[in-house]
Every structure is written in C-alpha cells, then in structure tokens.
Amino acid sequence: MTPRNKVKTRDRVADKNKLKSGGQENTSPARLSLGDEIRLQIKTHGPISLATYMSLCLTHPQKGYYKTADPLGASGDFITAPEISQMFGEMLGAWVLLQWHILGTPDHFDLVELGPGRGTLIADAIRVIAHDPKALGACNIVLLETNPVLIELQRQKLAPLTPRWITEIAEINKTGGDNRPLIILANEFFDALPIRQFQFQDTNWHEREIGLKDNKLVWGLSPTPLPASILPTGTTNPSEGEIREVSPLGQKTIASLAQILNSNSGAMLIVDYGYEQTRAGNSFQAVSSHKYADPLADPGQSDLTAHVDFAALIRAAENQGARAYLSGSQKSFLSEMGIKQRAEKLIQSNPERADSIKTDLERLIDPSQMGELFKTMTIYGVPDQAPFEICAPLSETSGISHGFFGRRGGCSGGEFSSLNTSLASDDQRNNVMRNRAIAMNSLKLEPKNLVTMSQVHSSRVVEIGPGHDPKNRPEADGMVTKQTGVALGVLAADCTPVLFADQRAKIIGVCHAGWRGALAGIVGNTVEAMVQMGAARENIIAAIGPTIWPQDYQVGPKFTEEFLKLYPDGGQYIVFPDKTASEHFDLPGFVLDQLRLAGIKNPVTVGASTYQHPELYFSHRFATHQNRKTGRQIAIIALNG
C-alpha cells in the first residue's frame, strides 16, 4: 500500500511557496548539503520550528525539494491524479465551464492553477473547455510556478497555448490589468504549505521544534509555554501529549486569495486531503520513492506534507468576506461532475483499455483509496457592493442616502443566497453581518452605523437618539431619527418596507408594515413620530419597497371578516384576482392609502413583487410554498454627516 494512497491528486510543484514562510538562509557554502546547512543554523541560532524546517526542505532557493527537479510520476516520489487518468482534469474542466456560465460568460477570464506540475491537469481541463469556442477564447491561462524544470515541461505540454507564469499569489491580481474574473484551481496545493505543531505537556502548550543531538536532527519542545492567543481552535481540555497543528501560511494564502476573488469576482476549487473539522493529532509525514520516510532524514530529498484543516481555511476565507464551504468528498464531487459517465464513454471508444480505465476510476473515487480522504472546497468572491433600487424623489434629495436591496450580491449560500440580512434566520451570523456591511458599503456608509429593529409586527415606533448603540435592536416596527451619520434599516420578505425623509427638517424614518402592523397603525404612527420631532407632513417623502402584491397574497374569510370590522370602508383592499373564488389582500395598496391618510402627498412605489420574483427578492410565502427557508432583504436610509 502506498503512503496515504499517495497517488497524489495534484501535480505538485515548486511554486508552493514563493509564499515565503521565512527562516530561509542562503549563506552556507554550495558544497554543504541542505541537511548540513540546517544543522549549522541550529548550532548557531538554536532549535527551529517545524514551519521553518518544512520551508527550508521544500523551497530552499538552491536545494529545496520543489526547486531542483521533477518529483512527479513513476520515477519520482509520487504519482498524481492527473497522471493517473485524463478524467480527473476533464472533470475539473467541466467545473470551470460551469463557473464561467455562473459568472455570466464574460469575454475574458483568467484560469489560474496553483501548482500545475507538468501541466497535465490544465491540459486535460482545456480540452473540455474547448468544446465551447467562446469559453476557450475568453480563457487566459495563468500558472503559479517557480520550478524551472516544471515550467519547461508545462510549456511543452500546453503548446501552442501561451500561459502566463507567475511566482507569487500577489501577481494573480496583476495579470489581466482590468480586474477580469478569476477561476482558480488548487489541486493538492495546501497540504505542503508549512505547519506549526503544538504539544500539551505538564499543563501547558509548547511548540514542537527540531534540534540536534549527537549531530542528528531530533524532535523537542520549546521550554517557553505558548500564550493562549496563538493556540489553534479547539484546544480546550487537552490530554497529556496531545498535538495540534496549524498552518499560518495556509490561512494567510487563503485570505489573500479570498481578497483577490472579492475584488475580481470568481470562484476557486481546492482539492486536497485532510479533515473537515479541526482535530488533534500528528499528520506530518514524508514520502520518498512512493514510501514513507523519516521526515528528519535527508532534508530536501523527500516530499513533506500534512493533512489540510479545511475548517481553518473556511474561517480564513470567510473572515475576508468570501463565501467558502466544503463541497463534498472527491468521490462525490467527481461523480457529480460526471466521471462515471465519462469512464463509460472512454471504454466504448477504447475497449482494449477497459480494465485500465476501471482501475483508474476506482483509484480516484473508491472510499478506501482517494475517494473519501480527499475533499473539495469552494470559495466564491463576494464584491463589496450589491445592487439596490432607489426612489427618484429621495435620490434627488441632498444629504440623504437610501436603497432598497434584494437578495443579490451577498455572501450567504443555499436557501439564504445571497444578501440575507436577518439575524433571526438560520443563516450563519458572520454571513449576515458581512451582508449588512456589503449593503452599507454599497451606499458608501459606515457599516458600524447601521441600526435595525427586532421586528414584531407591532405599531410601536422608537426614536434613535444620540449615543444609541447600534448593537441594541429595539423591539419595534418603526424608527425615526435626526442623528446625522446614523443609518436606519428595515427588513422584509413580503411585508412592506417604508422609508421616510423630511430633508428640510433633517429627519428620517423607517417602518415595517406587515398586515398586523399595518392594521394596527404602524404607518401613521411613524409619520406622527416624525412630526413630533419637527417634521412637516407636507415635506415628508415616503417610498414603499419590494413587497408581495395582491395576486399572490391569498387570505381567508376570517381575515376578511376581521379586516372589515376594523376598516368597514376597506372593501377595495379585498380583491379576487383572475376571478378566483378566494380572497386576496392588497397590502401595498392599503399601505399607500395609509400614507396618504397620514398626510403624505405622493407616496412612491419601488421594486416588483417579491413573490413573483424569487430570484431577485426573498419571499416568505414563496419559500413556504416550496417548503424551504428564506432570508430577509433590507432597505436603508441615512442622514449624511
């Protein structure tokens, strides 16, 4: 059995660091081996961390493992999945095509591979992309590589294509010159980035280090206990001798890539072996000539790796505002992309290779080989701005910013895709907070100044005065303020959001008008609260945003009876669209008339029906009919300072 089924799914490369981890020295005489240089460094400066050791062994400028030769294939130290079968690269090519369509089929995009090895994966992917001539014409290949031996192999493999080679992550953002969209592939890239190890010993955590004993490299522990601030996640209640791993460079690299994706838009696919959740254990190992090796023997002559902590990478990407999630095991991902069907077609075309193709397929997707150990992770860039709709009279009013946002342009996934702003939803809190920041950034407002409510379908209105803590969400359905710099936000997903402004008095307001709140008087109460602060009814501009329209708001006889008791002359709001037998309620029509009754001359309607356009807006009723969860969109108004 080969180590870790070290049928490596990636054309491993030298580039895996120009992402420098530090600690490298190039002062030793050329005649010294890398091991001699490391021993000399330890004798001179003391023990070194595992991260420094890995960096020296793998990326030393002259003697590093990824700097001196081609480590791939049967004659090297490991075989990669692209070398196993063309099907692996073809499935990634299908994924690239899918992402290109998701991006809107742009005229130009950069296809970036981190660690392209011999170029086999990207060549196989391009063969699939070429089935769409427009996609192929739009594709600009960018390869992150530092090994001159591999660069030449890539050049030969990809001819007559003309890739652009880069040596640092930061160069990705400079290749196109026009912030063109990006699609990034990283197949077994992160497993070889340097890690640090921490061991719990005698009630304290200590860093594992590499020192010398009888001139041999040996493991040891730093005598200085580690401060809690640098410990990895999940280090509570450790057992004696427990080891934890963290890759600062891996997290830094992901953070940089997430920032680039946010700026350019696009997607990234990571394929690697590792853990879904951060866990204890020592996964550091060396492989040489397809066998396990002593990682401290013959520095620079073995492939050094550690399992990827996917949870840590996801956190690093999300901390930059990108969307990141595990997208399944390698087996599930390749199966979803159609690898089994591709294998059948290859067998039909090459019956003499049927056994070989089946063996290759099994190697890639069998749970006992690479199918479950290897995971896939996806990152999507989230722009700093989201689309929003405006009310013309408000947009022509100086000193006031406003916008009615829908569901597009955010970072949430699944049923909450993508600009969900509701803290009461089952969405992840960090996604919601990021989405709120995106909305505020879109209006060029400070995210920290957004004030929202705990909306309860009431008639209660609160005044937001000086010193109000935005973290305090009052239980109400209406807010008013005359504080410059403060932004008022109202959430909805079928209910009617209303924005108010009196530019002369410099007073603004919002209200959330569901049927309960609307019938209880929330609209008129909000106007009255503004008047009490000094606004003039005739000067107040009011706009209602995207809401459910009457043809989709079916109600029952009981609602109609109760409504007509409260509003005996309100029969015009109970409608029968398309001559249906069931009653429907005209919520926006009722709210507009409530505004007029409150003295607002010409209230404005913005946006379309939430129910009719679930691709643009969150709709509670539509989601309920589909047996799904949903989020909330936000409308914001602010007095500029």
UniProtKB/TrEMBL annotation:
Instruction: Give the compositionally biased regions (Basic and acidic residues).
Output: 8-18
Give the subcellular location.
Mitochondrion
* Keyword rRNA-binding on entry: no
Concerning SUPFAM superfamilies, the annotation shows: CNF1/YfiH-like putative cysteine hydrolases, S-adenosyl-L-methionine-dependent methyltransferases
Any one GO MF term held by the record is:
S-methyl-5-thioadenosine phosphorylase activity
One CC-aspect GO term: mitochondrion
- Cross-referenced InterPro entries, in alphabetical order? Cu_polyphenol_OxRdtase, Cu_polyphenol_OxRdtase_sf, Cytotoxic_necrot_fac-like_cat, NDUFAF7, NDUFAF7_sf, SAM-dependent_MTases_sf
Q: Which reaction does it catalyse?
A: inosine + phosphate = alpha-D-ribose 1-phosphate + hypoxanthine; adenosine + phosphate = alpha-D-ribose 1-phosphate + adenine; S-methyl-5'-thioadenosine + phosphate = 5-(methylsulfanyl)-alpha-D-ribose 1-phosphate + adenine; adenosine + H2O + H(+) = inosine + NH4(+)
List the protein's name.
SAM-dependent methyltransferase, MidA
State the organism named in the record. Answer: hydrothermal vent metagenome
